[in-house]
Design a protein that fits this description.
It is a single chain. By secondary structure, the protein is α/β, with parallel strands linked by helices. The protein has eight helices and seven strands. The chain has one domain (8-246): Rossmann fold, CATH 3.40.50.1820. The chain has helices spanning 61-68, 89-104, 121-130, 153-161, 168-176, 181-185, 205-214, 233-246; strands spanning 8-11, 19-25, 44-48, 109-119, 138-142, 191-197, 219-224. Strands 1-3-2-4-5-6-7 form a seven-stranded mixed beta sheet, with helices on both faces. Helix 7 links the parallel strand 6 and strand 7. The N and C termini lie far apart (38 Å). The model has no long low-confidence stretch (mean pLDDT 91).
């Protein structure tokens, strides 16, 4: 979008037949790289990046950061937050939508089963894309981000750095109105499973519950009472359960 290139990893089963689609979105940070655990013999899988620099397979996180140069692969989530047109995700979200459109046109797609999964930023992206794709049937979200103004730690820190500009927070709040997963949730049709970390300092539980309450369909939330902002066994189990649901197991 707007001259930028977005990357993802697509895997299609070798055996002839029709298959469900599983789409994964990454948490914040450098390019995630190929995830062998998200490649299935019985499902089409797409794992997206949000960065516009080319991911290199088997590259270490340190090598990715060094190659990014001026581009900070950690603070990007607040770049351009002063307006919705300049915000980092302004071009990323349409690109992710187009990637899903492409995968849905594959002849191997069964035409009815699509599942999203993601943690933190990935949970937010899942919700934002599903709001514009009512055909998405199921989602698994772990400690999702961008759930409300106080629900994303990087934004709070960024605003604090501009405390000398009384209009900066106002502009940032206005931008985030258009990127809120809480607002987007009510437009989804998917069955939703979520996990919340009850001592998560990055995406506080109250904000995660705000998102959960807005999903209109069948839903369930799992409470990790001593979990911070992280992925535990419940993450692996949740992705597997999503796969089993989509494939009829």
């Amino acid at each position: 979008m707007n001259g930028k290139t977005l990357y993802g990893y697509l895997s299609i089963p070798k055996a002839p037949g029709k298959y469900p689609i599983m789409v994964g979105y990454p948490g914040t940070g450098p390019a995630a790289g190929i995830r062998p655990s998200f490649i299935y013999p019985d499902a089409i899988s797409l794992f997206m990046e949000v960065h516009t620099y080319r991911p290199i397979p088997h590259e270490s996180r340190e090598e990715t950061i060094a190659r990014a140069g001026w581009y900070n692969p950690f603070s990007y989530a607040v770049q351009g937050i002063e307006s919705r047109e300049s915000f980092f995700y302004h071009d990323i979200l349409p690109g992710i939508h187009r990637a899903l459109d492409y995968v849905e046109k594959l002849p191997q797609y069964d035409g009815r089963n699509i599942g999203f999964f993601g943690s933190s930023q990935g949970g937010w992206l899942s919700t934002m894309v599903a709001a514009f794709h009512p055909e998405v049937s199921a989602m698994f979200l772990n400690v999702p981000a961008f759930t409300q103004w106080n629900g994303f730690n990087s934004v709070r820190g960024n605003v604090a750095q501009h405390s000398d500009d009384p209009q900066y927070e106002k502009r940032a709040r206005e931008t985030l109105r258009y990127y809120s997963s809480v607002h987007a949730a009510r437009y989804t049709n998917a069955t939703v499973a979520m996990t919340v970390g009850r001592i998560d300092p990055i995406c506080p539980p109250a904000s995660v519950y705000a998102l959960y309450n807005r999903f209109p369909g069948k839903k369930v939330i799992y409470h990790e009472m001593d979990m911070r902002h992280e992925c535990r066994d419940s993450w692996t189990e949740g992705v597997k359960a999503l796969h089993d649901h989509l494939t009829g197991q």
